Amino acid sequence: MNYNKPELLDALAGQYVLGTLRGLARKRFQRLLLSSNQAREATSLWEQNLNNLASAITPQTPRDDVWVNILQRIENQQPTKTVIHTKPSIWRTWSFVATAACIVLAFLVIQPSTNVLQTQQIALVQNQDKQSLWFIDVNEQGLSVKASSKLVAQSNQDYELWMILKGQDTPISLGLLPKQGNKILFKDSRFKATDIALLAVSLEPIGGSPNGLPTEVLYTTELVLL
């Protein structure tokens, strides 16, 4: 596949952001995001366009049962089969809004009320089935990472978190992720939310990457600024 064609990159980036790019095609595009500025720029443009669409919608207060259903889906990760007939642009907008809402709600559910550190950014790492695996809470002290009960970790390998800065191709390791429970990762001196194109999770030998680069990229996600 020729990823140098702008129209192909734009189409793949759109499908990736909307969540319709699945399976091996999604994994290939995630690997491409680690090495291609053009792919990251195309993805960022799609996200900006969806943000603009979302901001143009007049806020509506949802019914109580809508929030209950969202919380249940976050907890149980059981997809519902609901057929919605709307215009494509509206569907894309609400798809983005619902994803952002789920991420924020997930953190409201798992964060203890006694947490005195102010959250600055959050991120949610999900697998291909949209199951939440890690919740990442960024504050002044570092990255607070919580492993989800949905995570089925491999005992003979580790999971490593990376950040990819805008305009750079080389990922920077942020440390090993917990296989269960919580863990604090200290911020790299180059960690600045506005400079981060995306976060990535790789599968590594025990102890982490042997060469300072991701061995097998499993998932990518983005920071949500609060």
Structure description:
- The protein has 226 residues and is an alpha+beta fold.
- The protein has one domain (64-225).
- It contains 5 helices and 9 strands.
- The strands form 2 sheets. It has a 5-stranded antiparallel sheet with strand order 6-3-2-1-9, covered by helices on one side. Strands 5-4-7-8 form a 4-stranded antiparallel sheet, with helices on one face.
- Strand 4 (157-165) and strand 5 (172-176) form a beta hairpin.
- The longest helix is centred in the middle third of the chain and has 23 residues, at 88-110.
User: What is the typical, i.e. mean, pLDDT?
Assistant: 77
In helices, the fraction of residues equals 25-40%
What portion of the residues fall into strands of 2 or more residues?
Answer: 15-25%
> Tell me, what's the shape?
globular
By DSSP (H or I, 4+ residues per run), the number of helices equals 5
Helix/strand order, N-terminal first: HHHHHEEEEEEEEE
Biggest pleated-sheet summary: 5 strands, antiparallel
> Unreliable segments (pLDDT under 50, ≥5 consecutive)?
78-97, 107-115
Evaluate the radius of gyration. Answer: 18 Å
DSSP, total strands? 9
Distance, first to last CA: 37 Å
Decide which structural class fits the backbone: alpha+beta
Provide the domain count: 1
Strand order of the largest sheet: 6-3-2-1-9
Task: Provide a short characterization of the protein structure.
36% of the residues lie in helices and 25% in strands.
